[in-house]
Amino acid sequence: MDIKKNPLSLQLKAEDFMPASQEEKESLNIMRESVNFWKDGLRRLKKNKIAMVSFCFIVFIMIFAYILPVFWPYTYSQQIKYSENLAPFEYSAKEQQRIDEGEKVFPHICGTDKLGRDYAVRLMMGTRISLTVGLMCAVLVLLIGATYGAIAAYAGGWVDNIMMRITDIMYTIPDILLIILLSMIIRDPLKELAMKDGFVWMQKVGPNLIAIFVVFALLYWVSMARITRSQVIVLKESEYVTAARALGASNGRIIKKHLLTNCIGTLIVMTTLQIPSAIFTESYLSFLGLGVSAPMPSLGSLATDAVKGMNTYPHLLFLPAIIISVVILAFNLFGDGLRDAFDPKLKN
User: Fold this and answer.
1) How many CB atoms are closer than 10 A to CB 92?
2) pTM of the model
3) pLDDT of amino acid 284
């Protein structure tokens, strides 16, 4: 249809109001594929190069701590005679004699300690203990803190007021003093329990490490509870929560299925950031002699044992210190990446 325009009119061109062609419609289609919360967060996370490099470091550390010791020819408690205080890649006279006779001897890549134990495998086991403590403590903090904070926020009123005042009191309790007291209290019952079948591992771990777990369960959930509370206070006024109440859903189901589920992004970020904090706490407590029992190593206890010979064998101190620094840095950077990916509102 040919539509003519009056040359004296101030109207727009008539062609501008003609139906668009198929090619013009496709050129204006800039919508991307719809994705859910997790895919969108992972997409942003993959674009964060620092976070991805940190994740690669974490995977390497996990392999170093949990897989490599299985294939290592030495164990963390094995004492090799005449191989005390060897430097990295150094052989003892007896081992050199075996090599001269044509026998293959696996080198001590990181040397040995004063008792002739291979230091590389002790670093692996120390990293395993520190990572295990960090992961388990983070899970404890997540379960206790998220549940406590969600209940306080959902209940509101005087219940919320009392529960939050309890968290304020928890902040004032010194954790080191509590660990010392708990270690003294549970030492004897632990020894009796370790004598029973199936609980021998408790004797190897020792009362100090179990006391660390107890202290994390008692004290370190406070920050998680406060953050969860602030999230739930906003979410509990949402329409879907009102609809769930109208349909007769119980309070427990609303907290579990609706409130905590919608806080999952923030909870994952906080849990990831809690891991390096737990590792650092375990390391400095082990450095003070409040960690795992010998001969089981942790990174902190390895550093403690190496302090006395720092001038003669500095590598025995530097290696666990470097691993502690790398582990904490990798988890912190990866946690920052998760925060930016799954909770972009917190990004500066």
Assistant:
1) 19
2) 0.78
3) 78
